[in-house]
TrEMBL record:
Residues 18-105 form the GST N-terminal domain. This is GST-like protein. Keywords: Oxidoreductase. GO terms for molecular function: oxidoreductase activity. Residues 108-235 form the GST C-terminal domain. InterPro entries: Glutathione-S-Trfase_C-like, Glutathione-S-Trfase_C_sf, Glutathione_S-Trfase, Glutathione_S-Trfase_N, GST_C, Thioredoxin-like_sf. CDD domains: GST_C_Ure2p_like (cd03178), GST_N_Ure2p_like (cd03048).
Length: 235
């Protein structure tokens, strides 16, 4: 069994089985990307719930794994060359897990880079913009008298989701017939935008036809349903 004691994070969240991948996360749109990916691939792993509301990502143990203080992060005892690998940033983790398992990322070089391109679209656009819209519409920002920040993010979010709408024309998945990490990267964000954030009306979601069907297909996958609830929130 691999000794992971050299990683300070294991002192706060000790592994039950140090021979399997350790996931440090919360079931947010960013966090569930990795739990869904792990469920889809069937890779053995152990989830650890990180309480972001209690600022656990800013403790020295978590920062030793991710100096950016964000979830998710992983610690794979069976990394490249058989050595443990610590990794943060959900997009990087998706690519790593796809290459490790040989799943959900096309082998064809051109299609591989096209898939990664859409993951980067999510990382640089969908995630940050939808997250800001959520803040200004649902959380503390909703009380700001000046609605220009909210409207700015609503306008950009509406634009971005229509980029996705156009891409999905005539396609079941972002890459066509093949479900990939590009889809996994976005499912949680679109679900949250119209569900938890309640921002569907702001972006005229009801005008779309391709994105809602894609979202329904994605959410019907058993691995997605499981991944959306991992790690379990404490009762």
């Amino acid at each position: 069994m691999t000794d992971l004691s050299a990683f300070p994070i294991t002192s706060k969240w000790p592994p039950k089985d140090s021979g399997v991948l350790q996931l440090y996360s919360t079931p947010t749109p960013n966090g569930v990307k990795v739990s869904i990916m792990l469920e889809e691939t069937g890779l053995a792993y152990e989830p650890h719930f990180i309480n972001i509301g209690a600022d656990e990502t800013w403790g020295e143990e978590y920062l030793s794994l991710n100096p950016n203080g964000k979830i998710p992060a992983i610690l794979d005892p069976n990394g490249p060359d058989g050595k443990p690998l610590a990794l943060f940033e959900s997009g990087a983790i998706l690519i790593y897990l796809a290459e490790k398992t040989g799943k959900l990322l096309p082998a064809d070089p051109a299609k591989r880079y096209e898939t990664i391109q859409w993951v980067m679209f999510q990382m640089g656009g969908i995630g940050p913009m939808f997250g800001q819209l959520g803040f200004f519409h649902k959380f503390a920002g909703k009380d700001f008298e000046d609605k220009r920040p909210r409207d700015r993010y609503a306008k950009e979010s509406a634009r971005l989701i229509r980029v996705l709408e156009t891409r999905l024309e005539g396609r079941d998945w972002i890459m066509g017939e093949e479900y990939t990490i590009a889809d996994i990267s976005m499912l949680g964000w679109v679900r949250n935008l119209i569900g938890f954030y309640g921002a569907g009306e702001l972006i005229a979601y009801d005008e779309l036809k391709n994105v809602p069907k894609w979202l329904e297909r994605g959410l019907s996958r058993p691995a997605v349903q499981r991944g959306l609830e991992i790690p379990k929130r404490p009762a």
